[in-house]
Predict the 3D structure of the following.
Amino acid sequence: MEARKSLIKIKPKRYKNGDIVKVSFMIMHPMYTGASKDKKTKKIIPAKYINSLKFIYNGKEITNMKVWESVSTNPVFTIYMKINGKGKLTVKYTDNTGESGERSKKIKPKG
Amino acid sequence: MERREFFKTVGAVAAVSAVLPTVSFAKSGNPNKMDYKTAISAVTNGKQPKMSDKVKLKVPEIAENGAVVPVTVIVDSPMTPQNYVKSIHIFSTKNSNARCLDTNLSPANGKAMVATRIKLNGTQEVIAVVELSNGEFLMNKKSIKVTIGGCG
C-alpha cells in the first residue's frame, strides 16, 4: 500500500542547541469513527483511526500519544521539544487496523 | 393463586423483552464508548483532580464546525527531571467516547504543551486533566458552543 502523506514541521526554522522549538506532525488520515454512514451506499463506514503515536529523537522516545477516534480528520499534533545536538526526529504511527508508518526529519542546529 | 402466578410470568417476560433490545443496541454501538466521569477516574485512579489556573485551555468560544475544533493545553510548570508534567489528557463531556487524546510527556520536551484538533458532537465542555511527576492531578474545563455537530 502506498504510504500516507505526512509532514513534520519545526518552528522556528533556524534554531540553536538548547532552544525549545515547536514540532508539528501532520498526516493525511480519514479518522473514521465507526458511527458515520456512506452517503451513497447508506452503509456504516468501519472504524479506522490512528491509535498510537511516538516521537523519537536520536533513539530516545520523548513523547507518546494514545489517540482516540474523536480526533479530527487529517490530524495535526503539536508539542514542544528541546534541541539537544545533531540527529534525527522520527514520528511513528499505528492505526487500529494494524497499519503503521513513520516519518523522519533531520535536526541540524546552527551556531 | 394460579392467576397470580400467571401474572408474575407474564410480567417477567414483558420485562425481559423490554430490556433485550437495549442490550443488543448497546453491543452494536461504539466499542470504545465511555462516559467522561469513568474515563477521568480511570486516568486518575479514582482521585478527584484539582481545578487549577496553571492548566491553560485554549479553545474557541463558538465553533462553527464541530468536525474541526482546535484545542491547545499549556501547563505552567517547569520541565526538569525532578519536577515535570507527566501526562496531559483531553476529554469531552458529550461525545460517545469521552477520551480524545492521552499524551505522555518527558523532561526532553522543555515545555508542557499539546495541541490538536478534535471532533465535537454538539455543544459541550472540554476537560483537560494533567498529571504531575509528584502524583498530583490538576484539571481545567471550558465550554464550547458548537453550531454543527462533527460526528456522523
About this structure: Chain B touches chain A at residues 30-32, 67-69, 72, 92, 95-97, 99-106, 108-120, 150-152 (CB under 8 Å).
